[in-house]
Please model this.
Amino acid sequence: MTPPTTAAVDAGATPRSGRETIAGPDDLPTPVGAAADATAPAAGPSGATPASVGPVAGGLLVLVGMLLVALNLRAAITSLGALLNEVRDGLALSGALAGLVTTLPAVAFAVFGALTPRLVRRHSPARVLVVAMTILAAGQLVRVGTDSALVFIAGSALALAGIAVANVLLPLLVKQYFPHRIGLVTGAYSMTLTVGAAVAAAAAVPVAHVFGTWRAGLAVWAGLALAALLPWVPLALRARAARRAATPAAVAPRSSRIRPGRTRLGWAMAVYFGTQSLGAYAIMGWLAQLFRDAGYRPQNAGLLLAGVTALGVPIALLMPTLAGRLRTLHPLVLTLSAAMALAYVGMAVAPHDGALLWVVLLAIGQSAFPMILATIGLRARTTEGTVALSAFSQSVGYLVAALGPLLVGILYEATGGWTAPIGFLLVALAVQTGAGMVIARPRHIEDEA
Model:
């Protein structure tokens, strides 16, 4: 919980005076811990007023819906990674197409994430999430129902489009409906995201073996996407009624829209998000190979990689809360960067003997991801600022992140060792740290836009 003396500052909210008005998305109930202003309900991103339902039950429905969405944000990706060899054999994918499949998530997140603020201006977040989860389920079913490599890739892109939109929307929903619990709720959904990724990676192959086909190992996660629809359908229906009742004056004028690309804070957030994701994707793609080259058996190398994810689960829950408690993020940014730097140097010098220590340090360092998710809400005062900053940070960031596995692979192939790839990752970490020092100081995107 955020201390009462710093809650409003950390969340970017206006201190309460008497009663509290809610300026948020039109599709969801009043945020937990807030009382709606019955005489002057504020408009959300799409210009309608909040639906009127009980705050406790409504807040619980929002939270459950967010966690179900978070379970889906990596399952379609990690399940495919676990079955990539079987998919390559089944569809006769060339090396180039297989490379495209592995690079597609970051590119799709960048492209489709950038479109999300426009969608939210025209439609309520709940309705957008309903469509996003439907598209995610449809894309996963399309790719398992074809023998064409190109249709498989198109289906994967469709599924990733749904994930990209949800990626951007979750920080907005946290900011609006849990403004004094940004760290706690961000930690809960980022932990759920990590659990979903790990479970999908672990279960995809056993499910495929039970049903005798890789298609089953991928198709089962479409059901999870459909389950995530359930809380959002009634909220979207309420949003439709609320939007009809909204006045034209409730819609934000075009001149007031936030453009993070024109601000120092926006670019610092994007660079930090991108460079930490670059390192994370490189680790996910190449850490097992590094440990195999160091003398570990394949199954043990895989366990070490899984250990990074497993250790990251509790850290993902705690890190955003810690970020929300601090008045400045400088100590946290430096600590996480130091952990990553020690891990990188250790893997270059003693990859076999110190493997367990390097795994622990990597798990600590990669908690920069849940920290930056929480920071999106902390560095914006309004819902519009939050969704704009979220979209810009993630869109630019994932384009940067896509370079990680590719450049590490090129350097590894060119040099036959890990000194050059780790050197590249250390340079990226230095850039990440510099951007982190910019975003560490309390400030808001609305003040710079």
Confidence is low (pLDDT under 50) at residues 1-56, 247-255. The longest helix spans residues 214-245.
